[in-house]
Amino acid sequence: MSTIDRILQLVKESGHNAKEFAEGAGIAGGSITDWKTGRSKPSVDSLKKIAKYTNVQLEWLTGDSPFRNVEDALNDFLKAQYKIDINNALIYSSVKFLAAGVSIEFQDKVKSILLNSPSAQEASNELLNIINALPKKQKEAAKKAVISVINYLVDAQNERDTYLRFVNLKNSLTHKSLSDEKKSFFNCPVYGRISAGIPNWAEECLESYLPLDPNLMNINNPEECFFLRVSGESMNKLVRNGAYALIRKQDVVENGDVAVVLVDNYDATLKKFTKHGDVVVLEPMSNDPNFQTQIYDKNTDIKILGKYLGKFELN
Question: How many CB atoms lie within 10 A of CB 246?
Answer without folding.
Answer: 22
